[in-house]
Amino acid sequence: xxxxxxxxxxxxxxxxxxxxxxxxxxxxxxxxxxxxLRDDNLLVQNKLPKADQVEKLKKDRSVYIYAGKxxxxxxxxxxxxxxxxxxxxxxxxxxxxxxxxxxRQKLLPELQDYVMVALKVDExxxxxxxxxxxxxxxDLNMLKIIYITSPGNEITE
Amino acid sequence: xxxxxxxxxxxxxxADIAFLLLIFFLVTTTIEKDKGIARQLPPKEPPTDExxxxxxxxxxxxxxxxxxxxxxxxxxxxxKDLRQAAIDFLDNGGASSGTAEYCDYCKGKRNPESSxxxxxxxxxxxxxxxxxxxxxxxxxxxxxxxxxxxxxxESQRLYGWKFTEKTKxxxxxxxxxxxxxxxxxxxxxxxxxxxxxxxxxAEPKKTGQ
Lengths: 157, 209
Prior knowledge:
The complex is a heterodimer.
Chain A: H1 2-7, H2 20-34, E1 50-51, E2 55-56, E3 62-68, H3 75-78, E4 83-86, E5 89-91, H4 96-105, E6 116-121, H5 127-140, E7 144-151
Parallel strand pairs in A: 1-7, 3-6, 6-7
Antiparallel strand pairs in A: 3-4, 4-5
Chain B: H1 14-28, E1 35-40, E2 59-64, E3 70-72, E4 75-77, H2 79-90, E5 122-127, H3 133-158, H4 163-171, H5 178-194, E6 199-201
Parallel strand pairs in B: 2-5, 5-6
Antiparallel strand pairs in B: 2-3, 3-4
């Protein structure tokens, strides 16, 4: 009988932490896989308009154009007129072609012909600016565009 | 030379290192959520004198002014009514039965004053330079919604599933196997042909015109 009574100790056994590294590694791998490092430093305000009839963007073949008012910390330097941003810097309308060609060259060579231009434009911008950008794109013969939107609907909200 | 047993590496700090990395990736992660409305721009062509003739009744003009007000077919309209108006226009099927243009799958009012068939029907969006981008996207969204509604209806009738849902599945890679993909693609194209998306955007007006 003493065999059984001996086992009963009054202390709680310590929880084994041996599997903790495994769990943490698992989480680590998950985040490593889903992480996309931000490549563009946003210089403009970018509150996207809402839409719900959307398609997914193929990221490997797209070039981003941002447009909107300069962010508040750049406003005293660049004013509050809407500006266009490609890559990491502000671009003039006349300079778009050059900047876009440069951005396109960064894509994989086999995907360069299928390039898609993603327009991330602030909802308060005038359509005129978007029209100007589109005219430049037509000149460049980059005809596939996608207006990036945030989920939601203008009417119901 | 005496063989010494290699001392065991202390793995106690492994968790700490892993945590450090984990926190780094947690902070830098932006989970992708870029979605939007895709459009194909018309290619630039040299100006010609030839004008493509579209009958007045086959044209649905949506005008957005600088105050973000909508003028649809020369009538003021609220944004929430635009979708239904576009559906009614596209689905009208005004051509009389027996003619080549007759639309046998349309369920509209068959008003001879409105569009002949979905293939002929063109929606034209005109906007002012000072229209807000928010409004512009909202209008585009409603028009795409009208097309999606009709395509969903037709695919439901022909194949028993919704066009938008299957397109999404295809996008997300849920359809497995080349043969299945090919077959689905073909069906989707059939639906697209029934209601081809004919959204035209007016050439921007130069100042002073």
